[in-house]
Amino acid sequence: MEGGGNLDAAIESLLNVEKQMRLAGDVAGTRKAAIDILQLCFEARAWKTLNDQIILLSKRRGQLKQAVTAMVQQAMQYIDETPDIETRIELIKTLNSVSAGKIYVEIERARLIKKLAKIKEEQGLIAEAADLMQEVAVETFGAMAKTEKIAFILEQVRLCLDHQDYVRAQILSRKISPRVFDAADTSKEKKKPKEGDNVVEEAPADIPSVLELKRIYYELMIRYHSHTNEYLEICRSYKAIYEIPSVRENPVQWIPVLRKICWYLVLSPHDPMQSSLLNSTLEDKNLSEIPKFRLLLKQLVTMEVIQWTALWKAYKDECENEKNMLGGSLGEKATEDLRHRIIEHNILVVSKYYSRITLKRVAELLCLSVQEAEKHLSDMVVTKSLVAKIDRPMGIVCFQTAKDSNDVLNSWSMNLEKLLDLVEKSCHQIHKETMVHKTALKV
Asked: Residue 61 contacts by C-beta under 8 Å, 6 or more apart in sequence?
């Protein structure tokens, strides 16, 4: 009791000092008095009194901004010293209520909410943690370091993915432009600020570097795109991870990533971007380290029909291993999608070599039934990856594009021009040969 009385007396004395300093407009004095009060409470381990004093001091008439900022920063150092989780949560909530709506302590508030969200997550309350984090829009904080902003948004995205809120995860992820990782130029933040500029704070020591954040970002994007089986986007995310210097320098890291790039390329539907990525990956010298995958990609760019049974026999074990490595995120759908991609490739090969072909022959070449062949052809026409027409009564597939009258006239005109050029060249050659023979006869 005596200790409690001494504490109350000491606090009362310091509150009078704080009042005099505040009314006199002495910033340094007010700040020191406020910090001293908090320090006394902390040393006495009087956590309830500490919370009460923080609220009391912040609500005092005409309280200086600098004093509130100093109080919040000082009290944040005590969070890890709290004896139990309830006391910790209470202190964080007190500081949150004090800093709410005050732009000069917005960074501190963001860090407090991050701490509280982490506690909620450890307690298994993922939904509450995700809701807490979404309250803060760090992208509007001018004084926060760029890396800290990115780390905070990534934490918001991760919690949404853990909560299986994929729509909000996508919205939040769009706040980060991938170009920010490519620039990786933090020199702008370290420049001496000009007069009138916002002073950007240094990021805390526990915030990862830009390249580490890049990896975390793309790993989260892989989790998001895996939910919708967007293979090409997953492949592009792995490609970005593969380009990180620390990954490129270590074969233990880049070989599994390159294998995944190959798998997701093969699983991606045929389109210009997939084709471009396929060719650029084939040019990668590192691919020679995994020759089996080089052969797989080579088969896809070669205009030859691929036998599904032979390919599956060769790559079944690899595919099963990859599924286990991916944590089973692909499931059985990967095998089915791989088969569809091979069928699509084979149809494109057939369309290159034939202008007209019977549906029965197409089915034979693809090792499918006529109904399946027709379905796959129709799907490819609908997705505009192929131009074809099926005459069902006749059972004939035509891969030629329909030409209008202008195209027909233009092609006829060009053919006629080529023919006349050939006739002219032939006449010239005949005339030349005749002159040579005449000269030889005269001699």
From this structure: none
| pTM of the predicted protein model | 0.75
Q: What is the pLDDT of residues 245-298, one digit of tens each?
A: 888 888 888 888 888 888 888 888 887 888 888 888 888 888 788 888 888 888
CA-nearest of 338, 337, 340 to 315 is: 338
For residues 187 and 201, give the distance between their C-alpha atoms in angstroms, rounded to a whole number.
Answer: 13
Q: Is the CB of residue 91 less than 8 Å from the CB of residue 41?
A: no
Contact between 279 and 298 (Cβ < 8 Å) = no
Task: Read off the pLDDT band of 430 (50, 70, 90).
Answer: very high
Confidence of residue 184 (pLDDT cuts 50, 70, 90): low
Phi, psi of 303 (to 5 degrees): -80, 65
Confidence of residue 177 (pLDDT cuts 50, 70, 90): confident
- Using the Cα atoms of residue 138, residue 139, residue 140 and residue 145 in order, give the sign of their dihedral: positive
247-271 as b/e, with b when 16 or more CB fall inside 10 Å? beeeeeebeebbbbbbbbbbbbebe
Q: Which residues contact 436 (CB under 8 A, 6 or more apart)?
A: none
For residue 417, give every residue at least 6 positions away whose Cβ sits within 8 Å of its Cβ, in sequence order, or none: none
| Furthest C-alpha separation in the chain | 140
- Which tokens hold the place of 270? 């045929």
